[in-house]
Amino acid sequence: MDRSPLTRATVLAALAAMLGLVLATVGPGGTAAAQTVACAPDSGTACITGTLRTSAGQPAVGVALEVAGPGGEQQVTSGPDGRWSLPVTEAGQYTVTLDEATLPAGETLRDPANNPRTVTVSLGGVAAALFPLGTPTGPAAPSGGATGDGDAPPPATGGEPGLDNTVPGTASGGGVNWDRVAQQASAGLVFGTLLALASVGLSLIFGTTGLSNFAHGEQVSLGGILAYVFTQLVGLPLLVSGAIAVALAAASGYLQDAAIWGPLRKRRVGMTQQLIVTIGLAVTLQYVFQFFFGAGSLRIVRSNPETVALGPILITQQSLISLGIAAAALGGVSYFLVATRVGRATRAVSDNPALAAASGIGVDGIVRMVWTIGAGLAGLGGVLMGLYLNATAWNMGSTLLLLMFAAVTLGGLGTAFGALAGSIVIGLVVELSNLVIPSDMRYAGALVILILVLLFRPQGILGRAERVG
Questions:
Q1: Closest-CA residue to 367 (of 352, 351, 346, 338)
Q2: Which residues pair with 109 in a beta bridge?
Q3: Residue 110 CB partners (closer than 8 Å, separation 6+)
Q4: Cis, bond preceding 263 (omega within 30 deg of 0)
Q5: Which of 19, 149, 212, 304 gets the most CB atoms within 10 Å of its CB?
Q6: In DSSP terms, which residues pair with 91 in a beta bridge?
Q7: Is 0.70 topped by the overall pTM?
Q8: CA-based nearest residue to 387, from 265, 298, 295
Q9: Of the candidates 11, 47, 384, which has an alpha carbon nearest to the alpha carbon of residue 224?
């Protein structure tokens, strides 16, 4: 059947209602395409998915894609919201090719060399094929706040859990303008606040024990994975699942200190040796997560979040709720440290453990409580980050670990409020840097900040300079 533009126009004039139904199931060029329906992964099915947005942040509708792999060849078109999703029943590598001729007028691929893209699919998981739109020289889209389906979270590879191509409403191409700056700044504020949940716990642990915990990122991954398990596998409501995930993450911190760090401290094992143990623990936990849950992304919720417009800023409802919960949790921790007796004891142990012990403070009890609180905050950060990015995965925490250490160092080692301030700065830098550098390099800004702080103000923003020697 002829599907040329002239024929389509003729049919449209004669059979408008019928053509609307046909166009919903037929891709451009007359090729039958899979309908754009939500794909739900299970033990025998995986989903290849993504979202396409124009350089103005609007959904790119009717774009044709072809997926080829072990399961054969299939075609799909993006729906009214720019999303596309395709189920496959065999694991392996799939090649996703976007038909550039079907892009909206004036739109191009920002990186034409990455078309087609290859994704690795595991049954029961979701793999994202990302095709950012915009000028080839335009800045990359931000990672935080993405609302699409994702592959594994950012192995510092330029994709926060590899989710949507852009934050909803964020321009991925064109020049820098105030709307883009506002959008990126809002994404940075949300991302930095969620990052602060993990960074504050990391800073508290360092302050009270002197240990740089390289396994702290896995506490973030644990929170997100537990939320996925109780929501998708057990079937509990999201709120209940999140609460259980945070409680279990906090319990894991208590058990870690009781089984590992407490005995090591009693044996007076040096910090270098303990640090090596944290690295080994991090690697072990990563591959335990991967063994049981696979390398694909894990969506805590499978429904697509609604977008809210706040002036020139578009943000999802999930992001706003996550921001509110994170702010409440950080406010509670702040009150605990400043206005409660145990909180003041915690600050005393952080300042000088020996003097705190001489004052009658139970240092071991405080340290164990800090491990519990720190792990719980990291778990909460993992849950909220998984909702914010719309997916979690086995290595989500490890890919955020550099940002956590950069935030803690910037704010001042061992100072909880410094970690909060540092996280906000890091979040803003990571997202705003997308205005001028490719998204694959967005974490480089955090590394530059880390180096500069160590060179010119090693005590950090809120830290105190100390005399050495």
A1: 346
A2: 133
A3: 132, 133, 134, 135, 136, 138, 140, 172, 173
A4: no
A5: 149
A6: none
A7: no
A8: 298
A9: 384
Q: Rounded to whole angstroms, how far apart are CA atoms 264 and 64?
A: 58
d(CA 442, CA 107) in angstroms, rounded, equals 24
Tens place of pLDDT for every residue, the chain, 469 residues? Answer: 444 444 444 434 444 443 343 333 333 333 333 344 467 777 778 888 888 888 767 778 888 899 988 878 888 888 877 888 888 888 888 889 998 888 887 788 877 777 888 888 888 778 888 888 865 433 333 333 333 333 333 333 333 333 333 333 333 344 567 888 888 889 899 999 999 999 999 999 999 999 999 999 999 999 999 999 999 999 999 999 999 999 999 999 999 999 999 999 999 999 999 999 999 999 999 999 999 998 878 889 877 677 788 888 888 888 899 999 999 999 999 999 999 999 999 999 988 888 888 888 999 999 999 999 999 999 999 999 998 887 888 999 998 998 999 899 888 877 888 899 999 999 998 888 878 777 667 777 778 888 888 888 777 777 665 554 4
DSSP 8-state class, residue 232 = I
Tally: H helices and E strands in the chain = 14, 9
DSSP state of 392: B
Taking Cα atoms as reference points, which of 85, 118, 99 lies closest to residue 30?
Answer: 99
Residue 88 one-letter amino acid: V
Q: How far apart are CA 316 and CA 96, in angstroms?
A: 27
Tokens of 243: 């609460």
Amino acid identity at 404? M
CA distance 412 to 207: 10
Secondary structure element (H or E) that encloses residue 373, with its range: helix 363-388
